[in-house]
Design a protein that fits this description.
binds sodium ion; binds 4-fluoro-L-phenylalanine; Hydantoin permease; globular; two-stranded antiparallel ribbon; Transporter; mainly alpha; 18 helices
């Protein structure tokens, strides 16, 4: 059997690439994480700083990764290896791609579990768990008993991973591209519906003020660093995602224009998510700074006080499942393409092998949450306590591998690749190219080194 290289695939249009990359970018980061970190860091001023980071650092690094993917036309490790060879530099630079693929895989191992929470909540909501008049303590118990129940976590994580394997295994056009073409518009529709409903039923004025009115007194230096870290996370940078999606970008597509659109779309969704959540939070007298439990513990309190709790909660968690699912697909794609290339397998085989590996690693997170003794490791890295396997994977991947990967991608395209190759890929005006160069050569590396040292507690 002859297998064509997976990277012969191409997005059907510029729009289809922007849609798929936006579906990859829009996920738990926008709907679960962004609202609560905004809530914890004082709202408007945080949003403003975040926007600056997105456009000065996130977008240039996004362009760098799409460029690497399109020019390398291979899974991340092989793509960077090819480009290092083309520019006649040390092939050790390929670590940029391998690290990204590994980070994406490790992030997916816990992302799939949290996506499983969303699915479990959707089922609970549909069954009427958040009925009118349920007490706050009972809602707290719903969350507590879910995360301590390993069987439940394994069940819902398995469903999410199986869905991912199914879509990716079906193929590029009829699986991945088709899935995002359906799911992304559905996600947007549900999100807008919820935001409109929230504006009607909740306190839109207070929420809008909270999100848009900058109050710098509430923004700490820690908050600024969180904004920078999140600008990487939310755009799926340094995780192999944008390199592999870049590998499918047609030659005529403008990387500069599509990257800007992807960032704008991701940002708009994050803001709409804020506009869907905070009017409810304020309208029902709840606190915006509740942390990671904001949508799993705080929001259900408001749902249970609404006229049709089951319906509203089901729609909300369905929306969250869709957002997480289209990101999960993107995170497994690099590994699947790599297995296809390396072992010349079919896409189905590659998807099933990746899924089985992923499922095995995800058990580390499941049993960290449920409290199994073997998952409690009590590591300490650079003074940071990592009590469980989950906290170790999250910290090492999100806070160490992502910044290093982003730094390497910026340095590789800014300093290492020959200028005429990057010019050829970006194919833009001299001014735009100059601005991009300043960002990837200086701004991004300096900013990343600062967050990195800070997160490690070294400054
Ligand atoms: N960007 C996605 C989100 O905001 O949820 C998910 C994600 C993918 C985060 C890849 C991090 C990552 F490395
Ligand atoms: Na995102």
């Amino acid at each position: 059997m002859t297998t064509k290289s997976p990277t012969h695939n191409r997005w059907s249009s510029n729009f289809s690439f922007v849609l798929a990359a936006t579906a990859a970018a829009v996920g738990l980061g926008n709907i679960w994480k962004f609202p609560y970190i905004m809530g914890e860091n004082g709202g408007g001023a945080f949003v403003l700083v975040y926007l600056i980071f997105i456009f000065l650092i996130g977008v240039p690094v996004l362009m760098a990764e799409v460029l690497i993917g399109r020019r390398g036309r291979a899974s991340p490790g092989y793509a960077v290896r090819k480009l290092a060879k083309e520019s006649k530099v040390n092939s050790a630079w390929q670590v940029t791609g391998w690290l990204g693929m590994f980070a994406g895989f490790m992030i997916l191992s816990f992302y799939a579990v949290i996506a499983g929470w969303a699915l479990s909540y959707m089922v609970k909501a549909a069954q009427g768990t958040f009925f009118t008049g349920i007490s706050e303590a009972e809602i707290g118990n719903v969350f507590g008993s879910m995360v301590s129940n390993a069987n439940e976590l394994v069940l819902f994580t398995t469903i999410m991973i199986a869905g991912t394997v199914f879509v990716v295994g079906k193929g590029f056009k009829s699986g991945l591209e088709r899935a995002v073409t359906f799911l992304m518009p559905m996600l947007l529709l549900l999100l807008i519906l919820i935001a409109v409903y929230a504006a009607k039923i909740g306190d839109f004025g207070t929420a809008a003020q909270f999100i848009f009115k900058p109050d710098f007194a509430n923004l700490s230096s820690q908050g600024i660093l969180i904004a920078l870290g999140h600008s990487f996370f939310t755009l799926s940078l340094a995780s192999g995602v944008m390199i592999i999606y870049g590998a499918y970008v047609p030659r005529e597509t403008s990387i500069v224009r599509t990257s800007i659109w992807i960032a704008i779309a991701d940002t708009i969704v994050a803001v709409i998510a804020g506009l869907a959540i905070f009017p409810i939070v304020f309208g029902f007298g709840l606190q915006p700074g509740e942390g990671p439990g904001l949508i799993f513990q705080t929001l259900p309190i408001a749902f249970s006080a609404m006229p049709a709790p089951s319906l509203v909660a089901t729609v909300f968690f369905l929306m969250l499942v869709l957002a997480a699912f289209t990101s999960a697909i993107s995170m497994i794609e690099a590994t699947v393409a790599f297995i296809e290339e390396k072992f010349k397998t079919s896409r189905w085989t590659a998807a099933i092998v990746s899924g089985a590996l992923l499922w095995t690693v995800s058990l580390g997170t499941v049993f960290s949450m449920s409290g199994a003794a073997w998952a409690q490791i009590d590591w300490v890295i650079f003074g940071k306590e990592l009590p469980t396997i989950f906290s170790a994977i999250d910290h090492i991947a999100s806070n160490i591998l992502l910044p290093i990967g982003g730094l390497l991608a910026a340095l590789f395209t800014g300093w290492i690749m020959k200028k005429h190759y990057t010019q050829d890929e970006l194919n833009t005006s001299p001014l735009a190219y100059f601005i991009w160069q300043v960002c990837v050569r200086y701004l991004a590396p300096v900013a990343i080194i600062i967050i990195f040292l800070q997160l490690l507690g070294l400054i």
